[in-house]
Amino acid sequence: QLQVAESGGGLVQAGGSLRLSCVGSGSVNIRTMGWYFQAPGKQRELIAAVSSLGPYYADSVKGRFTIASDNAKNTAYLEMNNLKPEDTGVYYCNPFVTFTPYTYDHWGQGTQVTVSS
Asked: Hey, which end of the chain has fewer CB within 10 Å, N or C?
């Protein structure tokens, strides 16, 4: 069972901000972490990640979203600014970083973000 817990989602107006949290437990090391986004009716996609190779941001979030972490708390964060209605969906974190998340079966419950226009 994947030992991460996402939180911090909610309802926000366009242009607003949210900070999502991802708490790792057990053997999960948050130094390598991917953030994934699944819009309604669409496949899950990698939008941001941090690893030994450095940070990655998808074009859709570059300049608006930032990954941060607190190693002492084993917690990763996704700071989301200037949110848009198209950012509405479920966000997941996963220490397994992949551009094909639809091929992977182990996920947490995710956290819902709704951006109103």
From this structure: N
Alpha-carbon span 3 to 18, nearest angstrom: 23
pLDDT band at 27 (very low <50, low <70, confident <90, very high): confident
Residue with tokens 């607003």: 16
Task: Report the chain's terminal Cα–Cα distance, integer Å.
Answer: 37
Question: What single string gives the DSSP state of each residue in 60-116?
Answer: TTTTTEEEEEEGGGTEEEEEE-S--GGG-EEEEEESS--S-GGG-------EEEEEE
User: What is residue 98's predicted lDDT score, i.e. its pLDDT?
Assistant: 92
Q: Which residues pair with 94 in a beta bridge?
A: 34
User: Buried b / exposed e across 3-36, counting CB within 10 Å, b at 16+?
Assistant: ebbbebbeebeeeeebebbbbbeeebebebbbbb
